[in-house]
Design goal:
single chain, mainly alpha, 10 helices, globular, disordered N terminus
Length: about 220
């Protein structure tokens, strides 16, 4: 029996290839020169496309700087909603973070925390960075509401989303990276694991999500 291989249409593959090329170019330039010093024209030249083409795929330079964070949130939502029936939201969130930190090379741990890059500390991005967390909270709460088959605002779900975001916000912060830097490379993973377990204990109210929703 022949095995049919489903392939993405050529047009979509080209579109995805261009998007990837632009993102790689932007990240490389941001890393080398800093966000403020890079122009959209430079990114387009580096990716070997026109500025007009770049704006076909991305609305602004800011969007390029935060694209990884959008993808990161997508992956988190996918993990939460795709959890096993016997797993709680808390367990799915814990596993997501645990897998994440275990996937990072200890030597690159400080600079490779989930999608949160050094250029995000740029003053020009301060407002966008703050909005990022609000968007995370809204998207997580909306995903949980849709899982329950409702679009009506539910304050309990917003609290659950806020608790998850509080952990992510610290994990991606400049202060947390500074906290990790003095720790010997060989011990950084252990320090991160210890912090994660302690933090999850502090937000363990997420564990009561299933029970709380039974009475709401």
């Amino acid at each position: 029996m022949e095995t049919m291989i489903m392939r993405m249409p050529l047009r979509e593959r080209k579109k995805q290839a261009i998007q990837t090329s632009v993102l790689q170019a932007a990240k490389q330039l941001f890393r080398e020169k800093g966000y403020a010093a890079v122009t959209v024209s430079e990114i387009a030249d580096y990716a070997d496309i026109s500025v007009k083409t770049l704006f076909t795929y991305f609305r602004s330079k800011e969007d390029l700087a935060f694209q990884d964070e959008i993808l990161f949130c997508n992956e988190l939502i996918k993990c939460l909603l795709g959890r096993r029936e016997e797993d709680s939201i808390f367990e799915a969130f814990k596993q997501f973070l645990w897998n994440l930190i275990q996937s990072i090379d200890p030597e690159e741990l400080v600079d490779s925390l989930p999608g949160f890059h050094p250029w995000m500390d740029s003053p020009e991005l301060e407002q966008r960075y703050l909005l990022l967390w609000e968007h995370y909270e809204l998207r997580l709460a909306d995903a949980l509401q849709l899982e329950r088959g409702t679009t009506e605002f539910n304050p309990v779900l917003r609290v659950v989303a806020g608790q998850m975001v509080s952990v992510l916000r610290i994990l991606g912060s400049k202060a947390f990276k500074e906290y990790l830097k003095p720790i010997p490379i060989a011990l950084r993973h252990r320090a991160l694991e210890k912090w994660l377990l302690g933090s999850l204990e502090m937000v363990s109210g997420i564990q009561g999500y299933s029970q709380l929703m039974k009475v709401h």
